[in-house]
Write a structure and sequence with these properties.
84 residues, mainly beta, 7 strands, 2 helices
């Protein structure tokens, strides 16, 4: 975890990630450097893959929710994908 990033320190496993529009993006697996690693999708075209979002997209943390500065559909275009 990036100790110097106060946002990273607030993000915990199993938090919901939503876009600025309130639409769901995913669920936090953990922080990996300067990225949020999302849990693997269970179905669909991205099943079995981890997706990553830059911490730079995080607007804030509210309770058990990570809110992004971009709408969900836009945020998804910034995702990085890694299969395992």
């Amino acid at each position: 975890m990036t100790d110097s990033n106060p946002i990273a320190q607030q993000i915990r496993e199993h938090m919901n990630v939503i876009g600025a529009d309130g639409a769901p993006v995913g669920t936090v697996d953990h922080i990996d450097g300067d990225r949020i690693k999302l849990t693997k999708a269970k179905s669909g075209a991205h099943a079995g893959h981890h997706h990553y979002l830059s911490l730079g997209l995080v607007a804030g943390v509210e309770g058990d929710t990570v809110r992004l500065s971009a709408n969900a559909d836009v945020a998804l275009t910034f995702e990085e994908e890694e299969g395992e």
